[in-house]
Specification:
The protein is mainly α. It has two domains: about 110 residues, Orthogonal Bundle (DNA polymerase, domain 1), CATH 1.10.150; about 160 residues, hpI Integrase, Chain A. It is built from 14 helices and three strands. Strands 1-2-3 form a three-stranded antiparallel β-sheet. The termini are far apart.
């Protein structure tokens, strides 16, 4: 998104997100994008500007008085625009609803700038349940086997071992430093700068022992990253995602695989192997156990097999 001159109220909200709520810069940018789009659309409607020119609309003059004139119907009109004209999915629109709710809650609850929170009654679009994409154990073995055909295979293998054994987020993996490793433990900085310490199993330690002697020298400044690109730089999320995609194409016919789906694979396989929900919550770095439960799905086919194996299944009168 091109640089936009933000109104003061939006700048204040973005600062609140990072300094008080502990949101990441990435999340802050997503909130900012959604609100800039909403303000531009609503201004276009009010001033009869074609929505095709929406990216040119200046919102720097928006004030709290302007915001006070908005209605719940205006917000629904914006969501309709996102669905019909921008072809946003239910997931994308749900994020915009969350952004609007958070913004108006801030205006009323934290700043006391409005008397009525019009977004309080804003409903989230229904999101159909999507079958989660993850690898089963055999597919994970095929995926791992494909790594050894690649250049920098020991580095890539170590990164994939961290994904599959630790359920680490890609942003967390990129942020790891050499100093993050202390014996058999790794310190991970998660969302909201929350720190957690996770045990390194034998597979992770063996992968590290193979990778470290061949690690590319770091050419940047500051803390030494654990994983260094062939250019001597710290990895970005996008580069790691590209590596995962390349490994997947080399060895496994599977729907587009991402680092997040490897995290899902790790959580699912650990749960099936007997990990309890609280331990998983700590390993994955979830603030709420409800989030962890998303990863502990059991497929209908497995449930059917359990029911068929029940001893009582043979007792038919």
């Amino acid at each position: 998104m091109a640089q936009v001159k933000l109104p003061k109220i939006l700048k204040d909200f973005c600062i609140y997100l990072t300094t008080i709520r502990g949101k990441s810069q990435r999340t802050r940018k997503e909130y900012e994008y959604d609100l800039v789009l909403a303000f531009r659309f609503l201004k276009a409607i009010q001033e009869d500007i074609p929505v095709s020119d929406i990216h040119m609309i200046d919102i720097s003059d928006i004030t709290i008085e302007w915001i006070k004139e908005l209605t719940l119907e205006d917000l629904y009109l914006f969501l309709e625009y996102c669905e019909v004209q921008r072809k946003n999915s239910a997931v994308a629109r749900a994020r915009k609803v969350a952004t609007l709710r958070s913004f108006f809650k801030y205006l009323k609850g934290k700043r006391r700038l409005i008397e009525e929170n019009i977004a309080e009654e804003l409903e989230t679009p229904k999101i159909g349940k999507r079958k989660p994409v993850y690898l089963d154990l055999e597919e994970a073995r095929l995926f791992i086997g494909a790594i050894h055909e690649r250049p920098y295979s020991k580095r890539d293998y170590c990164m994939m071992m961290f994904f599959l054994n630790l359920g680490i987020r890609v942003s967390e993996l990129c942020a790891l430093n050499l100093s993050s490793i202390q014996g058999r433990k790794v310190t991970i900085i998660g969302k909201g700068n929350k720190e957690r310490t996770v045990y390194l199993n034998d597979a992770c330690l063996a992968a590290l022992e193979q990778y470290i002697p061949e690690r590319t020298a770091y050419k940047g400044e500051g803390d030494e990253p654990l994983f260094v690109s062939q250019k001597g730089t710290r990895f970005t999320r996008q580069t790691v995602a590209r590596i995962v995609k390349q490994i997947n194409h080399a060895g496994l016919q599977k729907e587009l695989l991402t680092p997040h789906k490897l995290r899902h694979t790790s959580a699912t396989i650990m749960y099936k192997a007997g990990a309890d929900i609280r331990s998983l919550q700590h390993i994955l770095g979830h603030s709420s156990v409800a989030t962890t439960q998303i990863y502990t799905h059991i497929e209908d086919e497995q449930i059917q097999q359990v029911m068929e194996k029940s001893p009582f299944n043979n007792i038919i009168m």
